From TrEMBL:
This is C2H2-type domain-containing protein. InterPro entries: Znf_C2H2_sf (IPR036236), Znf_C2H2_type (IPR013087). Residues 1-33 form the C2H2-type domain. Keywords: Coiled coil. SUPFAM superfamilies: beta-beta-alpha zinc fingers.
């Protein structure tokens, strides 16, 4: 069943009533309609009391009777009945046209609010997805430590990763964009060892790696690895190195370098080039 005000669909009457009682945007629609109806009623009453009353009298329809009322004319917008057809245009201009404009403005306002809510929902979903990725990683990372000696594992300690970045990331890696970052990660974080971080399904872009505790971590589309790099502030290091170089560049060089800079900047949300380059290295 649909809400008569905002047209949203509900499965039960109880959920519909709760929505109409508590949903702010629906309550606003109800208030707007109530106000519009009250104003329209007031305008109609005022119009009936005006000197033009005899020319715009609203009367009832009695289809079964043989009286002249059967010949009355109806306003197509509000379905009010008039004794004379000539009264309808004046009635429309004074009352219905005003009400129609109000409805249009209200409808446009609802569209704007719906667009705003849609954007807010998309943003919330993006934030939730990032949170879920981090929660999955931390959940795996908090498992009980085992005492066996582990070889070929990936350091997931943020401070350790940050130290590697600070000590080894150069501008030469940055001018390769996301692919340059992938080569840096393979050399300095994975130690040129494909056993540390491996791809188990090239088609679906599934990777996995062992952490310090010996837990096997699944990493679809290299999202966990990318998240670790961002937590270790790799982009802050990229920004610092880039700004130092930008100061000495001519406009053409700067334009060329900004392409790679923006490519890395977008890597947090779209790491396709980084991920695909890793596939060729592993």
């Amino acid at each position: 069943m649909n809400c008569e005000y905002c047209k949203k669909n509900f499965k039960s009457k109880s959920s519909l009533k709760a929505h109409q009682k508590n949903a702010k945007f629906c309550i606003k629609i109800q208030e707007e309609q109530t106000q519009s109806n009250q104003e329209l009623k007031k305008e109609i009453t005022n119009n009936q009391d005006s000197p033009k009353e005899n020319n715009s009298q609203i009367i009832e329809i009695h289809p079964e009777s043989d009286s002249p009322v059967q010949k009355s004319k109806i306003c197509k917008f509000c379905e009010k009945v008039f004794s004379e057809e000539d009264d309808i245009p004046e009635h429309f201009d004074i009352i219905c046209k005003v009400q129609l404009e109000r409805h249009r403005k209200f409808f446009n306002e609802v569209l704007k609010q719906n667009e705003f809510l849609k954007n807010e929902l998309n943003f919330a979903n993006d934030e939730l997805n990032k949170t879920n990725i981090l929660n999955e990683f931390h959940e795996n990372n908090n498992k009980l430590r085992n005492n066996k000696i582990i070889e070929n594992y990936l350091h997931t300690d943020i401070d350790s990763i940050k130290q590697v970045i600070d000590d080894n990331l150069k501008y030469e890696h940055i001018i390769g964009g996301q692919e340059g970052i992938a080569r840096f990660v393979f050399k300095f974080l994975l130690n040129n060892n494909s056993n540390i971080y491996s791809c188990v399904n090239h088609e679906k872009k599934f990777f996995n790696f062992l952490n310090e505790q010996g837990d096997m971590i699944k990493d679809k589309n290299a999202k966990v690895l990318t998240s670790l790099l961002w937590q270790a502030e790799i982009f802050q290091k990229v920004h610092k190195l880039s700004v130092q170089k930008f100061l000495d560049m001519n406009p053409q060089e700067l334009k060329f370098s900004m392409v790679y800079y923006e490519d890395i900047k977008n890597m947090e949300y779209d790491n396709e080039k980084f991920r695909d380059c890793l596939l060729t290295l592993l």
